Amino acid sequence: MTNNQTTTCYSKISALILDLDGTLLNTEFVLRSVLKEYLASYGKVLITDNEYARVGKTQKESAAAIVKNYDLPLTPDQWKDAKALPGANRLIQHLHKHRIPCALASNSLRAYIEAKISTHKGWKECFSFIVGSDQVQSGKPAPDLFLEAAKQLTVNTSNCLVIEDSLVGVKAGKAAGMKVVVVPSETEADAAAVADLSLNSLLEFQPELWGLPPFDDWVDNALPVDPIYLDGQLVDGLLVEFQEKDGQTNVLPNQVCGIYFGWAKMGINKDTKVVVRIKQEVSSSSRSNVRLCSIDESPDHLNAEQMHLVLVGYIRGFNFQGTLSSNSEICEDDKSVALSALKLPMFKCPESS
To answer: Which residues are catalytic, by number?
Structure first.
């Protein structure tokens, strides 16, 4: 069990209804790729900063609107690039393991939902029911999707918990008479005021707060995660001009947030154990603020180094309703947890490709 757990229970929940885009999957990357290809056919280049400033809309919303307006083709082969967000696989598998009814309710068309989840092993089988916007009268923010899901699950709406990432999704869940947890981006901050609970990441979700079985995958306050790969240069403790493994520059999903740990490789040198703090900064042009602290090397040894970073574990989030540490900086306890965990085989440095 993770540190600083609470025994407070918000409400007794019998079923969960999950959103897909931005909640379970990072579909923004796919939308952006399609938009880039479309603009390239006209000799244009997508300017990321301009897209984020588009009339108060997020890049995700802007790109999605353009894809819809111009009827841009999105094939299953393109959707397979949509990665699971941190904690998504863990949550889905946990619910399935404990036989907790779970539905998927998305504003996407049903065929698109099927395409998006097709490459994620076991996902389709874990959902008791899947519903898309073309299967109800109105999509979100109307409550139709969630009401249909509850009907098919044969669960009273007051016993359903919705997990969303957007304000329209939160409004739809509340309109359906359900409890709602939101994992919002910085541009969806207003959703937190409407939801029953707001998290920075699905990794912060605590099922026991809702009368559900707790996660049992913590290893002495460390949580194994799917590897996150980053390449960049370390300057004054911050990773700058970094890229994800697939070439996405400075665009870590908002849900990659908290204190992580893993391995840093610099040139031909040995792997160095590190603790990493990741915050999403609204005012930052790069949006992702990544600070790194070596456990087994002096800070000066790492400074100004070009490095390959592999994050393999998670320690905590930031100020989760008073139940997790409000300290958003790396502390000595974080270093101690990481140092112990990195001695275990499950946290060994994976082969990067």
So the answer is: 19, 21
